[in-house]
Amino acid sequence: MMRIFILILWTGASCCLVSCNGASQPVYARGLPPHFGGRVGNATEQAGVAGKVQAQINSAGPGGRVVVGPGVYRLDSALHPQDGTVIDCAGGQILGNAGVVFKPVGRIWALENPDPPRAGLNSVTVMNCVFDLSQDPDALGALNLRAIAFSKFYNVTIVLPARGNMEAVRFDGQDSNSKIPAYWNDFYSPNIYALGHGRSNSHIGFHFINGANDEHIFGGVVERVSNAFLLHGSDGSLVAGTGAEDFSRCIDLAGTAMDGPNHVSANTFLNVRCESRVPGNVAIEISASSYNNQILFPHSFATMSAASHLHDLSNGRNTVEYSVKNSVIYTIGGLGNDVRLGINKAAASPGVDIHGDLSADGHWKIGSGIDGNSPGFKAVRGETCDTKAQVGATCSYRLDWSSPFKDRSYTVTCTFAKAHGRPFIIATNPDPSGLDISVASAADAVSGGLVNCIGVHD
Prior knowledge:
Elements: E1 4-6, E2 9-11, E3 14-18, E4 24-26, E5 45-46, H1 50-60, E6 65-67, E7 71-75, E8 86-88, E9 100-104, E10 109-112, E11 121-122, E12 125-127, E13 129-132, E14 141-144, E15 148-149, E16 152-154, E17 157-160, E18 167-172, E19 186-188, E20 191-194, E21 204-209, E22 216-218, E23 221-223, E24 227-232, E25 234-235, E26 238-240, E27 243-245, E28 249-253, E29 264-265, E30 268-270, E31 273-275, E32 282-286, E33 294-300, E34 310-312, E35 319-324, E36 327-331, E37 340-344, E38 352-355, E39 377-383, E40 394-400, E41 410-420, E42 423-431, E43 434-441, E44 448-457
Parallel strand pairs: 1-6, 5-7, 6-8, 7-9, 8-12, 9-13, 10-14, 11-15, 12-16, 13-17, 14-18, 16-19, 17-20, 18-21, 19-22, 20-23, 21-24, 22-26, 23-27, 24-28, 25-29, 26-30, 27-31, 28-32, 30-33, 31-33, 32-34, 33-35
Antiparallel strand pairs: 2-3, 3-4, 35-36, 36-37, 37-38, 39-44, 40-43, 41-44, 42-43
């Protein structure tokens, strides 16, 4: 049976819930433990309340719900949930408005599993809470989901200081020996930001590490942290519809885990916005050890340099499809580090921009035929005229393209596919519609044959 506890202020004969503006609202309930003394409000922080909140969690037991009244609470130790614990802050999650703000003090996490090496936790729920770490640079981070699974976090706000190296959220599968992973944790509309900007700190928004598999982030925003999404070991996780602003790295598939043989594969980033106005920041970084990941339709802010949109060292073992400025860029198949295939819609003569290596060995690989009657590329083949049986004898003939080029600014190359005698081409005189080709004989024999010609417009 679920038990609900509300942190309240006990005022003698009456029992009141106190809001941040000091207004009291009656609570009609019996048997609720009295709240610690003191006024709860944005201007008054309650010291040493970690034990008070933890006592409510412990008293509620597995599956218990703790509703925390509005106020600012200083945590001198981490909150330790149980299986099925619900922590409902029951208010706005924006600093300055009515709601609940937890402030860690010292080198602690605001919330974590109390004993991850021995046991995992399932189905923890945190709702509408603010974790404000901005005034304590010694804090480790906000939510350490080491060995926590099947949990939900709704409208959680995490505030980080201008400098430091904290992790707002850590999905930690521990290592290959513990066998107590973090997985299937869902975040809905998270709001994570630092007071400075992404180049002045080493903060991480969401850190996937050591086989933290099947995590999900939907919506929300990560602002002014060094790494918005850093993956050091994750399979099958999903980030969808989330924005990141002012970062050093937005999506960083770092590859093999730091303390285990785990890898980064089969993760999906869908419609993620990476926005930065600072040159040198990287929207997508993919290590050589990451594979089978999909980054679909992200948007990189236009003022980033072209080289910083994508830095891919994985030799094509991942799929990236995205839009940058007025170009459409696809990197699909055995790709090297510098490949871009784009359609430049802003150019005076729009066309396809292709450069870089399409395979690890540096060769282009084209898997299907090429249209031989397109505006920029044409092909034609036909039988030539026959020369007289005399060395140096010549003749001329005409080959027309299936449709004309728009002008004469194209380069043509013709070769014999079949020949009799010893023919060779001495001149091609191209015009938009076709070619006047002169053939000569290099022997005292009738010379001619089947010729193939291609034209490339420049």
